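Researcher: Checking consistency across runs. Here is Acetate kinase again:
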Amino acid sequence: MNILVINCGSSSLKYQLIKMENEAVLAKGLVERIGIEGSILTHKAKGDKFVQEEPMKDHKDAIKLVLEALIDENHGVIKSMDEISAVGHRVVHGGEKYSKSVIVNDEVMKELEACAKLAPLHNPANIIGINACKTLMPNTPMVVVFDTAFHQTMPEKAYMYALPYEFYKEHQIRKYGFHGTSHKYVSQKAAEAMGKDIKDLKMVTCHIGNGSSCTAVDGGKSVDTSMGFTPLDGLVMGTRSGSLDPAVVTYLMKELNCSPDEVNDILNKKSGLIGISGLSSDFRDIKQAAWDGNERAKLAVDMLTYRIEQYIGSYAVAMKGLDCIVFTAGVGENDFYSRGIVCRDLEFMGVKIDEEVNKATVGDFAELSTKDSKVKVFVIPTNEELMIAKETLDLIQK
């Protein structure tokens, strides 16, 4: 049984075709510059890479090109679209309505439209992708998997903001959390690695990349997470500020005569690592500059690792214990330097890692903790596409 996973951005589309019997990726690829001059498809299958430049005015054109690539007699991997059992779509925001994945129907599409105002940069593109697939594959089941769903188990005291209560009731202003598919996947893998039932474990999963978040996973359920009403809250990120005093927003508006959109642009695109360092949003560049003696780059590294440590510590308190820490995503999986700083600073909590194993781990699964460490520490490569495919398969089989 083959599941096609689709992840639509505003002008891009990532995809994977996964054979579920052995969880093998038959093909994967990326479509870029949709609706922009220079549209391009990069398709990888059978160990080869195929690149096609062709105008694509919208996501329907892009998905049509993807499907043609999958069945092409030279670089395709299936004979017809009938071999695709279902399509799983990543959707960023499901609001409070959805705490799990659902099969697409008219009611679901209406709810996605209603949630678009909560994720204006992501949900509209996700919706376009779903509609395009429905048009091109009308008889194929469609499933939506929400980034926010995993966090719907948070208690009220964790997701509520201390604003007038009617803002929550009338405008749905609360913490939602994101990266849920990734946090769910790596927490399950950590439990498997420990040989324990996830219901008996307390862990903090650290998804550290250009966008970053930490989640407290207690008994397999998210009980708190660092991202909030939007993905801007929480950790220092590539271009996002993370948590700050809300009064900074109004202060900037008054002092710099900025509009709300201009402040939003500053906080989302000009802050974080690039704002502090003045160099780059890429942690690899920041780390190298810090090693070369750049004080602002060193400050950016210190701020990121300090914030990660704060969340791990506070979540250990929230869960009244800590069995495991997981690092994942681009920086978490590949950067020994930041992992080492965080773990050394947490030695007072019983965290001990093998420094040589840490330095040697780049993009692969590894247990970093020593045998006498009270807290297990893992690097676990995330696989959101496989998680989406699994949830899609589970739903269509039911």
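Researcher: Does this match what you'd expect to see?
Model: One thing to look at in this run: The chain is about 40% helix and 20% strand.
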